[in-house]
Amino acid sequence: MKRRYAGWSLLLWLLAAGAASIADAQPVQKVYRIGYLSAPTRESVANGVDAFLRKLRDLGWVEGRNLEIEYRWAEGNVDRLPALAAKNATTRIPIVMIFPTAPVEMKLVASLSRPGGNVTGTTFTPGPGIFGKQLQILQQMVPGVSRVAFLGNPADPEWPLVLREVDDASRALGIRLQVLEARGPGDFDNAFAAMARERAGALLMPGGQTFLVHRARLAELALKARLPTMYSYREAVESGGLMAYAINMADFVGRSAVYVDKILKGAAPAELPVEQPTKFELIINLRTARSLGLTVPPSLLQRADAVIE
């Protein structure tokens, strides 16, 4: 099989199963090998990987005992992960996807309720409702803000969908959107310079492999530019970003272990519905707020699921 890579955020690729003898006097124990493909670096998704392994252990699957995992990392470079490659590479080996956007539109699955092929797992398809919430919180944090920069990576497969949804949400709230693109860290300085020229009052950052890997650098640039920023992942706030309204990525990635467990026990991916998140968290970094000269409204503090001092 020609080995290629997939272009979504994280992907488990179940490779093969083999048997290994634990000891001559004991029954043969089957050891399963699975592949773990990820666009971000391991460091940037460490919480998610830990949650995944922890859930596997809870279900009886332990690395080095009955499970072997082969990890591959694209180090945040989505150009190394041509879209749909893993699905195109095989229709036989089960694939558990983690967080692709719009898997039906990308033809990864026939539908969320009945995937119909060898692919299933979890997904997060953001809509105007999610981005609308993020923009509303920005308006609460920065009263009177009317122009918001939006930085995205056009190499991400979900970029056209996300851009359309953010545009719809900003129009509904009467916000002027400044759309900027960055394919990698070499584009960050120019993007922030453009925000300054256009006098953006705040910044909206989507998820994305490249931005997740370089979240500390982006938080530093936003602080230097005096831009209150809303992120789509908690890890950015933990790295110095102002705030995020997002799913708990680590907890939700852990759900993928349930799919692995079911498939290794004989379930067919075609019949396992794709799961979507239902809970979102507001995370606020008070230290960053003070550095930006912002007073966090009591209503946001009361609403926050986590506050970083």
Could you characterize the architecture of this molecule?
The chain has helices at 46-58, 85-89, 128-141, 159-172, 188-197, 209-213, 215-224, 234-238, 249-254, 256-264, 286-291, 298-303; strands at residues 10-20, 29-38, 67-73, 95-98, 119-121, 147-152, 176-181, 202-204, 229-231, 243-246, 281-285, 306-308. It has two domains: 10-124 and 249-271, Rossmann fold (3-Layer(aba) Sandwich); 128-246 and 280-308, 3-Layer(aba) Sandwich (Rossmann fold), CATH 3.40.50.2300. 33% of the residues lie in helices and 21% in strands. The longest helix is centred in the middle third of the chain and has 14 residues, at 128-141. The chain starts with 9 loop residues before the first strand and ends with a strand. The model is unreliable at 1-11 and 13-26 (pLDDT under 50). The strands form two sheets. A seven-stranded mixed beta sheet has the order 7-6-8-9-10-11-12, with helices on both faces. Strands 3-2-1-4-5 form a five-stranded mixed beta sheet, with helices on one face. Helix 1 links the parallel strand 2 and strand 3 (67-73). The chain is built from twelve helices and twelve strands. It is α/β, with parallel strands linked by helices and 309 residues long. Helix 1 crosses helix 10 (256-264) and helix 3 packs across helix 4 (159-172).
